[in-house]
Amino acid sequence: MQGATYEIEAFEEHTDRGKRLSAVLITQNGKETEGLLGIVTVYDLPEAIASLG
After folding, report:
1. Residue 46, CB half-sphere, CA atoms under 13 Å: how many?
2. Is the N or the C terminus of the chain less surrounded, counting Cβ atoms within 10 Å?
């Protein structure tokens, strides 16, 4: 899973601030104006973590 490290960090950063993040929206360069490539939810985290080895 490419980019798994960034996705996990996004969830961790919000948790550290006492906030729950439901999903991370993935685009090519992280810009709002770009087309959506995918959505990562908290339910995807176990697979993302496992992909890191």
Report:
1. 1
2. C
- CA distances to 16, 32, 45, 48, 53 from 1, rounded to whole Å, are 24, 22, 11, 6, 11
Distance CA(36)–CA(27), nearest Å, equals 5
- pLDDT per residue as tens digits for the range 5-23: 777 788 788 888 888 888 8
Q: Tell me how far the alpha carbon of residue 34 is from its chain's centroid.
A: 16
Distance from the Cα of residue 18 to its chain's centroid: 17
- Name residue 30's amino acid: G
The region, left, alpha or beta by phi > 0 then psi within -120 to 50, assigned to residue 24 is beta
- Which pTM does this prediction carry? 0.63
